[in-house]
Amino acid sequence: MQKPSMDPPESRPPATQAVRPALRTSFAWLLWSGVFYGLAQWSILIVMTRALSVEDVGTYTLALAISAPIMMFSGLQLRTLQATDSLSIFEFADFYTLRLLLSTASVPVVAMTASLFSRTGHAVLVCTLVAVAKAVESQSDAVHGYFQRHEAIRLIAYSVMLKAALSALVMTVVLILTNSLVIAVTSEVLAFATIFFAFDLRRLRGLPETPRRILVVPWAESRRRIRRLARQGFPLGLSAGASSLRMNVPRYFLQAQAGAAALGFFGAVSYLNIALGRVVLALNNAAAARLSDSFYSNPAQFKRLFWRVVGVIALLGIVAIAVSALFGTELLHIFYGQAYSRYSLAFAISITAAAAGGVASTFELALTVARRLDIQAAAGLAALLTGSLASALLVPKWGVSGGACALAAIHFVHLAIIAGAATIEIRRRGPRPVSLSNGDKNVPEESTAR
Fold first, then answer.
1. Average of pLDDT values for 184-193?
2. Rounded to two decimals, what is the model's pTM?
3. How far apart are CA 366 and CA 288, in angstroms?
4. In a domain? residue 435
5. Residue 10 falls within a domain, yes or no?
6. CB–CB of 70/241 below 8 Å?
7. Domain that holds residue 55
8. Range 125-129, long-range pairs (CB < 8 A, 24+ positions)
9. Residue 9: inside a domain, yes or no?
10. Could you give the number of structural domains in the chain?
11. Looking at per-residue confidence, does 448 or 321 come out higher?
């Protein structure tokens, strides 16, 4: 098998040879698909608040809180690594095989963890099914990483919108007809699998740059590459897992201190953050490949694009904070009902936390492009410790509002560390790429001269 070229990026053409879509076009596709996905998921939660008890909403919130950190860690942020792999060191099969192995292994881990948080078989079953849904969704995400590397942004947008529409439709129908959370989550698994096989894989094989293979067969042939990819993604996995864990720490304390009902209220008012999160993810994903290429070849262009993305996300956050502060009570009453409207303060605080987290995610992207992965893990750990302490102090006193305050403390501490480290790295950035592995002498290494 021909080995991937290890030439420095300045001597090799970019991975995408076709005419690249304008960044504004890429952002528009990912933005509207992301907003559509967020609204579809939010509509599911609205139906849950109407068709299920607050305790069932709390069980679903607990399932998301338990499964998310484990699945995020197992993902190793492989999509970001794939989108920024401008040296084309790894094949698509390397990314997909590793993602499949790790996501499959994560499902029983989620089930065992759920049994520690809840003694009811119903809650454990819901957590397991949510983990299966996320595992299936991660297969689509692996394909999206390849689309993103080749800037086939429309295919990502189509897939996301189809998945959102189908899952929202089937879950809404099931919830109305059965009032069963278990059957509803099962239908979500089937919807995700349908889009993966019927759309993602078919479009992958239809690309001009179709990968030679989907899975690594035999394993011995690419074992070293996959292990190196796993080592490279491990710090990112820790960072992503810690990021998800720290955001869910208030939920764990609410479950322990106040029970499923309080967790249900908190889950509903904080779930609205997904709309802002999807917009931020859309902008970062649209800019990731171009940031990677310009980071190596044109630092000035990298800086201009990066700060433009940061400015747009900061502006969106300010608008979201203003809306939540002015109309929070009315919005909660309209969408969830009178019982939820009394948590408008928690709603505004959680939106503020999400705005800070959105800005921090863009600084994290810059560190990922620079392959300064160690800093992300350290920042995640610091924010996790902050969240644990804040939750222990605030949740017993203020309940749902205390959980929102703890969430804000987590995001602002993380933002301070990540923004400081990324700003320093950007200011002293040279045109040469950094090393992907300390032990790999074939990969161009960053000059130690600063």
1. 94
2. 0.74
3. 9
4. no
5. no
6. yes
7. 20-427
8. 125/182, 126/59, 126/60, 126/63, 126/181, 126/182, 126/185, 127/62, 127/63, 127/66, 127/67, 129/63, 129/182, 129/185, 129/186, 129/189
9. no
10. 1
11. 321
